[in-house]
Specification:
By secondary structure, the chain is of the alpha/beta class. It contains ten helices and six strands. The mean pLDDT is about 95. Bound molecules: 5'-O-[(R)-(carboxyoxy)(hydroxy)phosphoryl]adenosine (KG4) and zinc ion.
Length: about 300
């Protein structure tokens, strides 16, 4: 990560100097959050759920460079977990999955799976905040895979016969966890007047947001709470250069964080997004009303 950030920074530094252009540093997650505004007229403030291979976070976007952080992952990101589960299932050997990312492979296999064949516990049921956790869930899934390998008498590295069912149960549990934390974030925003009363919006973005099943589960939550759900098409949800360029446009228009071509700049591999409200969210300890995740 540090190596690629260093190469990118060196290239852009040279580029802006040679062309006498301003330098606009971009926060990767800010770019994921704002991409939707390139495609649709979404005004601030709105709630964002950003789920990718490196992050999982809920924030209120109040302006181009003005975010309130409501929750983030305490361990790994959902895309990272999905990639690791896919690797543990050796999906690279599956004829339909060899060219897909872990998340894409699980989504594809889940379509022909029965999620009720396995029951994984949704993480953090007793924490009434908006944090995420995926490491424990991955551990549960790994234990199930080991048990099934023993039952089927196969070695690690071979494909299990129940791989579709495991994919479906994994995807469902990840989706339910994301939905519950998002539901609480919506209720927190409503209780604190953080979203407009007219057309309050949830924006879903990041690589994992290209998952259609996760989108459907989140739509159940936005329908139940009266929010509009917006998500860029898959090609703009996963990492792309256009989202970074758009963030530059937004900052240039606002005159926010626009530096001279010769500015001394360093990169930050882990930079927080916005003002941290996670303690206030935890203190509010909002209990969720039941919502049927009927799919
Ligand atoms: O945002 P992104 O392109 O890169 C990061 O900033 O991390 O996200 C990549 C992640 C990978 O972990 C990949 O498995 C996951 O997004 N992903 C998906 C899907 N497509 C990509 N996860 C679930 N379902 C998908 N359809
Ligand atoms: Zn990303």
């Amino acid at each position: 990560m540090a190596l690629s950030l260093g190469i990118g920074l060196e290239f852009s530094r040279r580029f802006v100097r040679q062309n006498n252009k301003p330098f606009i540093p971009i926060h990767h997650m800010e770019a994921h959050a704002l991409t939707v505004r390139m495609l649709e007229p979404v005004s601030f403030p709105f709630l964002v759920l950003l789920i990718s291979g490196g992050h999982s976070l809920l924030a209120v976007a109040r302006g181009v460079d003005d975010f309130l952080l409501l929750g983030h992952t305490l361990d790994e990101a959902p895309g990272d977990s999905l990639d690791k589960v896919a690797r543990r299932l050796s999906l690279i050997r599956h004829p339909q999955c060899s060219t897909l990312s872990g998340g894409q492979a699980l989504e594809l296999l889940a379509k022909d799976g029965d999620r009720t064949k396995f029951s994984f516990k949704t993480p953090m049921g007793q924490s009434y905040d908006c944090s995420f956790s995926f490491a424990g869930l991955r551990n549960q899934i790994n234990m199930t895979i080991m048990k099934k390998e023993a039952e089927e008498g196969i070695e690690r590295g071979s494909l299990l016969s129940c791989v579709n069912d495991i994919a479906a149960a994994t995807q469902h549990t990840v989706a339910c966890h994301l939905a519950k934390r998002t539901h609480r974030a919506i209720l927190f925003c409503k209780a604190n007047g953080l979203l407009p009363s007219v057309s309050p919006t949830l924006v879903l973005s990041g690589g994992v947001a290209s998952n259609q099943y996760i989108r459907k589960v989140l739509r159940i939550i936005t329908d139940a709470t009266g929010l509009c759900l917006l998500s860029p098409p898959a090609k703009y949800c996963t990492d792309n250069g256009v989202m970074i360029a758009w963030n530059g446009v937004e900052r240039l228009r606002e005159g926010s964080g626009v530096l001279p071509p010769n500015a001394e700049i360093s990169y930050e591999p882990k930079a927080q997004l916005g003002v941290d409200l996670t303690a206030a969210v935890k203190a509010a300890a909002i209990k969720l009303p039941p919502v049927r995740m009927k799919m």
